[in-house]
Amino acid sequence: MSSESARRKSSPNVAGQAKKPTGRTRRKENQEFAADMKLRTLRPEELLHPAQLLARFTERASELIAQLPQDARPTPATVNAALRQGVLEAFRTRDEHIARLVETDVLASTPEQGAKAIRRAVRASLIDMGVRVVEEVDEQELFVVVEGEGEGFELLRPAYVDQATDKLLLAGQLRRIPAPRILAERDGTSAADVRGDDAK
Predict the structure, then answer these.
(1) Of 53, 68, 132, 154, whose CB is crowded by the most CB atoms within 10 A?
(2) What is d(CA 184, CA 77) in angstroms, rounded to the nearest whole number?
(3) Which of 154, 193, 143, 158 is nearest to 176 (CA)?
């Protein structure tokens, strides 16, 4: 057997089979991702600080208050106290949001964690932050129908609603399906099973 024949026989790739990414390809992808992250990183001078933000708000508030009649103007102390409280609450909310994202990133970076664990962590974070995840197709005003035919509906993507304001953050997606399929799902197959949420 010639060396060329032996090489072909031992080669794992066959016609029509996709080649697995090589180490060089992975390194290149990692380098491109790292470069993109550096471009996205905020510089210290671009970050907002509570004192700077409060000073800007106070300056703008003073301009607006000066346009009011003298007897309708609030005292400077009242304005400063309200602005300070608002700025502190905004930064506290930002800190909580960042902490959640950090927890999720740590979980996603842990090799032994599967996709299911990461999805659950993200869902728990959303609910803790006051986001209602709607997976019941009964609330059809929160969904758009994207495809299919029939009288029934199958969930493709949940809807996300801000519980504090009842604002729709992201509309869900439904697929029309024949009614018998809906009955079969009610008998033993959930929407999560159809989407494969239990698979890692």
Answers:
(1) 154
(2) 66
(3) 154
Residue found by looking up tokens 């990183």 in the block: 41
pLDDT in tens, the chain (200 residues): 544 544 444 444 444 455 666 778 888 887 887 787 777 666 655 566 778 888 888 888 888 888 888 888 888 888 888 988 988 888 888 888 888 888 888 888 887 778 888 888 888 888 888 899 999 888 889 999 998 888 888 999 999 999 989 999 999 999 999 875 545 555 555 444 444 455 44
Q: What's the token pair of residue 28?
A: 């290149």
Token couple for 172: 């869900």
Cα dist from 9 to 20, 38, 61, whole Å: 18, 45, 78
